[in-house]
Amino acid sequence: MGHWIVAISLVFFAFSTVLGWAYYGERCIERLAGLKAVAVYRIVFAVVLFVGCISSIEVAWVLADISNALMAIPNLIGLVLASGLIARETRDYLRRDPKLRAAG
Questions:
Q1: Could you tell me the pTM of the whole model?
Q2: Which among 2, 18, 28, 86 is least surrounded, fewest beta carbons within 10 Å?
Q3: For residue 6, which phi and psi values (nearest 5 degrees)?
Q4: How far apart are CA 95 and CA 86, in angstroms?
């Protein structure tokens, strides 16, 4: 009975992961390029999902790795652009809290 539980759980986990990635990508595309770009994103996502489903496991993992790397690029750019603000706010916070100032 255990193998059925694992198989069904894996299907639900994989499905929810694909839905989560699709939603995250849509919100990012909408924020970066506007509402009209969401339709293009959905088409590209569906094509890549289809290719991943019919290709070998090696190709599917390479697609997943490339997709994850591409998602990191906007996040890294945002971190670099916000680094000055983050450093300034951290210094201000540490300056106002005497307990943290004594520990650091």
A1: 0.63
A2: 2
A3: -65, -45
A4: 14
Say if residues 29 and 37 touch (Cβ distance below 8 Å).
yes
Helices within the chain (DSSP H only): 2-33, 36-54, 57-96, 98-103
- Give the pLDDT band of residue 28 (cuts 50, 70, 90): confident
| Interatomic CA distance for residues 11 and 93, integer angstroms | 45
pLDDT score, position 53: 87
pLDDT digits (tens, 9 = 90+) for 36-48: 999 999 999 999 8
Where b means 16+ CB within 10 Å and e means fewer, 39-50 reads: eebeeebeeeee
Mean pLDDT of 11-26: 92
What is the residue type of 69?
A: A
Instruction: Tell me the C-alpha distance between 86 and 89, whole Å.
Output: 5
